[in-house]
Amino acid sequence: MSQTTTQTTMPTLFVGHGSPMNAIQDTPYSRAWSALAARFPRPRAILAVSAHWYTQGTAVTVDPLPRTIHDFGGFPPQLYAVEYPAPGDPALAASLCARLAPTPVEKSTAWGLDHGTWSVLVHMYPNADVPVVQLSIDATQPGSAHYALGQRLSALRDEGILIVGSGNIVHNLRQADWRPGAPAKPWATAFEGVVGHALAQGDHQSLMDPELHGDAGRLSVPTAEHYLPLLYTLGSSRAGEQPELLSRDIALGTISMTCVAFGLPPLAQPA
């Protein structure tokens, strides 16, 4: 199914991307991303909002051939050798400037596809043959502004565009436990529960500011960049769409790998 390009309504996704090593390793997460792409038709293009393009103001990639950015350090040479040569979509990028008005959007040639995007897409679309555009996250704006941008992007789904937010609901590397099989920190589990409950209730408003949820929110989201892509996914969801939560795991005790999807076709039932 995923090999047929379509302009039917696409789902909107938030992917917990975790370590860049998921790009080159066979993990439960990389397998889940591959299986996720098989559940809906191939998109015409992808609009990605990654935690790793965190800017002053909003920008969009306009290169017809965006470069693969290895925005990390201390990993094995095999990871730096990965290239994800997906084409860009300058026309889609240009249209975003009108769609997101009155928010000004810079047309950027200074960025490309960072690992928040390509480490996931290398499993979803390994042939790198679906055009990809990245939208940056404006660090100066509150959660409600990012949610509002997601709402303005929602119509893209009817044009065959897959919206992918990439980050982590819980992301606290300073308190990570690097022991194999380390248990989740209680505050990480608590905040995951808060988010899961709010999603089940359709209560997006309570998720605009993690700090409103006390120590669990402050420890789970010590900086906003990995959390904010979730708000684009929530904003681009629609009334009546039920969230589906996948890959519900907390790696290293403090990194949530949960994925959230709206608008997925139901899984086929066994005969």
Distance between the termini: 19 Å
According to CATH, the homologous superfamily of the domain at 12-168 and 224-247 is: LigB-like
Number of helices: 8
**Class of secondary structure makeup:** alpha/beta
Strand arrangement across the biggest beta sheet: 6-2-8-1-12-9
Question: For the report, how would you describe the main beta sheet?
Answer: 6 strands, mixed
Specify the overall morphology. Answer: globular
What order do the SSEs take from the amino end to the carboxyl end, as H and E?
EHEEEHHEHEEHEHHHEEEE
Radius of gyration: 17 Å
Number of strands: 12
- Examine the coordinates and then state which fold CATH places here, giving the name of the CATH topology of the domain at 12-168 and 224-247: Protocatechuate 4,5-dioxygenase, Chain B
**In CATH, what is the class of the domain at 12-168 and 224-247?**
Alpha Beta
Whole-number mean pLDDT: 95
CATH architecture of the domain at 12-168 and 224-247: 3-Layer(aba) Sandwich
Unreliable spans: 1-6
- Helix percent band: 25-40%
Strand content: 15-25%
Q: Give the oligomeric state of the chains in this entry, treating copies of one chain as homo and distinct chains as hetero.
A: single chain
Any chance you could write out the topology, listing elements then pairs?
Layout: E1 12-16, H1 28-37, E2 45-50, E3 54-55, E4 58-61, H2 77-80, H3 90-99, E5 105-108, H4 115-124, E6 132-134, E7 137-138, H5 143-153, E8 161-167, H6 186-201, H7 214-220, H8 228-236, E9 244-246, E10 250-251, E11 255-256, E12 259-262
Parallel strand pairs: 1-8, 2-6, 2-8, 3-7, 4-5
Antiparallel strand pairs: 1-12, 9-12, 10-11
Helix pairs in contact: 1-4, 5-8, 6-7
